[in-house]
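Structure first, sequence second, as always.
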């Protein structure tokens, strides 16, 4: 573990100093502020790590994060450099390390604001900080979700590259035999990506493509997004009410979503 961490720091340009010194330097460079990043881990807090990579599909990440928070689950968020461009393109939000709390609240909306209790559950780690908590197997975590998972992230995790904190945290999740859910959002797939997905499956990850179904009576884009988030939470074993579940009766969900006669 110490050899791997030393190699990581050498690649990232970090030299000498203790872990705490390195962490302080990383955060000083990024301008990151606020207690949820720099404070000690609260006793008994065991979060789900959610890594957001650069693939299109940031609404899926938002739905997973907010659903976990609504279920009272602590969440550690990692946003890759490429994901920031995707967030800007898909939402118009510029995600900045030194304004992460405000930017994350803008992205997640009311369900991700401290006023709704998310402040005690939500923590953010800079993607370049390879000495962050999730980079170590001794850091308490329940598991990890990579959503959306770009083909680059899929390849990096499958090959064990650990080129940034997102990939390193996923590698740690696999080696510690914790649940890892990878949500690729790409079509069509190349042979290389299919091979990497099979390698992740063989390593113990759950490959859960962002493929919403229509039997749950969805009549909006958000409900289709929620279907994928619901499947993720099902794998994690976290209760939710994001979708109408299949009951074996044809058209039941569609009938349930339609207004009753005369109610208009």
């Amino acid at each position: 573990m110490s050899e791997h961490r030393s190699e990581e720091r050498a690649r990232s340009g970090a030299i000498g100093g203790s872990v705490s010194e390195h962490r302080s330097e990383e955060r000083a460079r990024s301008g990151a502020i606020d207690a949820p990043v720099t404070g000690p881990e609260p006793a008994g807090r065991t979060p789900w790590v959610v890594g957001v990579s650069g693939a299109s599909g940031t609404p899926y990440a938002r739905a997973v994060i907010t659903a976990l928070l609504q279920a009272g689950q602590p969440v550690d968020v990692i946003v890759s450099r490429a994901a920031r461009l995707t967030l800007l393109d898909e939402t118009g939000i510029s995600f900045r390390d030194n304004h992460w709390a405000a930017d994350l609240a803008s992205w997640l909306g009311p369900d991700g604001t401290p006023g709704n209790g998310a402040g005690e559950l939500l923590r953010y780690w800079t993607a370049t900080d390879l000495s962050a908590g999730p980079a170590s197997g001794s850091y308490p975590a329940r598991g990890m979700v990579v959503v959306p998972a770009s083909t680059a992230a899929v390849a990096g995790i499958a090959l064990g590259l650990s080129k940034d904190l997102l990939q390193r945290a996923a590698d740690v999740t696999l080696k510690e035999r914790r649940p890892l859910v990878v949500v690729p959002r790409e079509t069509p797939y190349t042979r290389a990506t299919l091979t990497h997905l099979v390698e992740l499956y063989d390593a113990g990850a759950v490959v859960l493509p962002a493929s919403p179904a229509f039997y749950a009576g969805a009549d909006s884009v958000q409900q289709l997004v929620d279907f994928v988030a619901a499947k993720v939470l099902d794998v994690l074993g976290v209760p939710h009410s994001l979708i109408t579940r299949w009951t074996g009766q044809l058209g039941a969900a569609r009938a349930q979503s339609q207004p009753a006669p005369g109610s208009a």
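Margin note: Residues 2-35+46-245 form a domain with the Rossmann fold fold (CATH 3.40.50.1950).
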